[in-house]
Design goal:
This protein is an alpha+beta fold and 358 residues long. It has 2 domains: 107 residues, Winged helix-like DNA-binding domain superfamily/Winged helix DNA-binding domain (Arc Repressor Mutant, subunit A); 203 residues, START domain (Alpha-D-Glucose-1,6-Bisphosphate, Chain A, domain 4, 2-Layer Sandwich), CATH 3.30.530. Strand 9 and strand 10 form a beta hairpin. The longest helix has 20 residues.
Length: 358
């Protein structure tokens, strides 16, 4: 891997920055990176391994501990490449120095200045943007902002198998429609943020997500509409068949408005868990899609799903779908019970225990 590819990851750049102040143990590095980027322990280990294998860091045994330090030689390689451009920087800095010397009012960098600059950057580049952003990665706050910005709705619908409950999730991605369409239909990209899939890419073609649902493509209008049937397991009957529809359109302020609807026939599963049965999974999936569209990499999807950050998201999602359930006209007690059962299903050891179905 080339030096610039190694440093292309904001996580790996931050690790190198941390090590410039001295050697650190893997645990100390992990504490900072997990707090700042909201990624899992296995993901941090993956980045450390890349830095070590590419020569940017050296791991040494110190007593019973392993200590990581920076190896400066690869950084010199980067510095030598940048040297050819410094003459351009020098010319511009000379002009800047002259301009500042002629300014009567001194320019001070304050906390307010930094905050305003940060706010301007956020206004120009959304959390999910992949269009030239140089942010250092998503924190848990960023992820929660994206989660809270999504709209959730419960309604009735009719699908091939009959009457159904429809769970709808809407959010905006600041990426072109064509890019979002490719991310949700290209098998190579799907496996990077969702699941590996085998698919016959045609109307009427079959698909199967690895270890998950399968079905048939029943609607496809690139790059605006994708509709599929959705069912689990073998010996599927008509009442087991759900439908999932994704619609893409231009967002009012730019980017792509993403709308996903999952319609399922009423059954005992819905009676117990309500909309969270499907809604929680889609909430997490669309957060993953947002990370993917802005160039983030989920190194280990299973570890990501088991991380404390995602467990917290699952609990919040269960509550959010309970609120949407009640807004659809369901009695408060019923919506609350379903939300509690959903939370206990996704995070069994959480403080929220399953509610009685009596």
């Amino acid at each position: 891997m080339h030096a610039y590819d190694v440093l292309g990851s904001p996580v790996r750049r931050r690790i190198v920055e941390l090590l410039l102040d001295g050697g650190r143990t893997p645990g100390a590095i992990s504490d900072v990176i997990r707090r700042e980027f909201g990624i899992s322990q296995p993901a941090v280990s993956h980045h450390l391994r890349i830095l070590r294998d590419s020569g940017f860091t050296v791991a040494q045994a110190v007593g019973t501990c392993r200590l990581y330090t920076v190896n400066v030689e690869p950084l010199r390689e980067v510095d030598r490449w940048l040297e050819r451009f410094r003459r351009f920087w020098g010319q511009r800095l000379d002009v800047l120095t002259t301009e500042l010397a002629q300014t009567t009012e001194p320019v001070r960098i304050t906390d307010r200045t930094a905050t305003a600059s940060h706010e301007n950057t956020n206004n120009a580049v959304d959390h999910d943007s992949q269009l030239g952003t140089r942010r250092t990665g998503w924190t848990m706050t960023d992820i929660l902002d994206a989660f809270n910005a999504a709209q959730r709705e419960i309604s009735r619908s009719r699908i091939q198998s009959g009457d159904a409950w429809r769970v709808t999730l809407r959010r905006t991605y600041h990426a072109p429609i064509e890019d979002v369409w490719d991310a949700i239909t290209n098998p190579d990209r799907l496996r990077r943020w969702f699941l590996p899939v085998t698919v016959e890419p045609r109307l009427g073609g079959k698909f199967q997500l690895e270890g998950n649902a399968g079905g048939e493509i029943i609607g496809c209008e690139p790059p605006r509409l994708l509709r599929v049937t959705w069912a689990f397991g073998e010996n599927i009957t008509e009442k087991d068949i759900n439908e999932v529809e994704v619609r893409l359109s231009a967002a009012p302020d730019g980017g792509t408005l993403f709308e996903l609807s999952h319609s399922a026939p009423p059954n005992e599963h819905w009676d117990r868990f309500g909309p969270g049965a499907t809604g929680v999974g889609w909430d997490i999936a669309l957060i993953s899609l947002g990370l993917h569209l802005r160039g983030e990499v989920i190194e280990d999807p299973q570890a990501w799903e088991a991380s404390p950050e995602v467990r917290e998201l699952m609990l919040r999602s269960a509550t959010a779908w309970g609120t949407a359930h009640e807004a659809a006209g369901v009695p408060s007690e019923e919506a609350t019970r379903a939300a509690q059962n959903t939370a206990a299903f996704y995070v069994p050891d959480s403080a929220q225990s399953p509610a009685s179905d009596a």
